[in-house]
Amino acid sequence: MLLTTLFLLPLLAGASPFSRRACAIEYPSYIGWVDSENPDMVFFPLPNNAVTRVSKEPRTSPPGSRWVDTFIEFKVPQGSWGCQLELYFEKGFGMVWRDHPYGPVKADVWNVDGNVPLGPYNISLTWNSAPKPVNLFGTTGDIPLPAYPGGYSQDVKKVINSAGCKDKMTYRVKVPAEVVEGGVRVQQDNGHPFGGWRMLHNC
User: Fold this and answer.
1) Which of 3, 57, 92, 120 fits as disulfide partner to 193, beta carbons 3.0 to 4.6 Å?
2) Which residues pair with 111 in a beta bridge?
């Protein structure tokens, strides 16, 4: 009995009661963009779009900038905790492009003052009806572009930020204000290799 106990002690010492559990993962329930030059157009009345598009380019007439912002919304199960938003690309994923031929490829993610608006029969998201930015939630930083062909040579993970979970979590993705022109497009693919937005929780 003593020998058996001595043999088990190292095994028990190596087993931590705080071993990391697998996280639950949610994927966007809606992705849709709005365009400052078409302020009343509903581009995506149904939740079947899979492309994130953010863009900013200068205009001379009228002076200013054209903005294209994307809204992403997640439905999170009740009782969830520790929600962490990520932009994640698995090795081999390749559907990330510049949306503008010049400028940096990065985006800011903003908390907004509401959820994606619903009309009587569909989604009624336009530039004018869209929830307004409230405060900066996080940023992607510079997004490396994948090789073509072949995609990324290793996994790429951009942790945006963490927050308490809500039934619906909505964000507005924009080119950073200090960028004069630039942008990015990402084709969400929840298969393998995965690429796009995801919300981790209950880790």
Assistant:
1) 92
2) 135, 171
Spatial separation of the C-alpha atoms in residues 185 and 96, rounded to whole Å: 6
Half-sphere exposure of 110 (CA within 13 A, CB side): 20
Mapped onto helix, strand or coil, the DSSP state of residue 150 is: coil
β-pair type (63-75, 168-174): antiparallel
Query: How many independent structural domains does the chain possess?
Result: 1
| 12 in a structural domain | no
- Domain that residue 101 falls in: 22-201
Angle at 112 between CA 172 and CA 101, to 5 degrees: 20
pLDDT for 67-110, tens place per residue? 999 999 999 999 999 999 999 999 999 999 999 888 899 999 99
14 occurs within a structural domain: no
Q: 93-124 burial by CB neighbour count: b if 16+ within 10 A, else e?
A: bbbbbbbbeebbbbbbbbbbeeebeeeeeebe
Alpha carbons 93 and 130: distance in angstroms, whole number = 30
Distance CA 55, CA 164 (A): 29
Residue 89 lies in a domain: yes
CA-to-CA separations, 17 to 8, 12, 14, 147, in angstroms, rounded: 16, 10, 10, 42
The answer to whether residues 160 and 138 touch, using CB atoms and an 8 Å cutoff, is yes
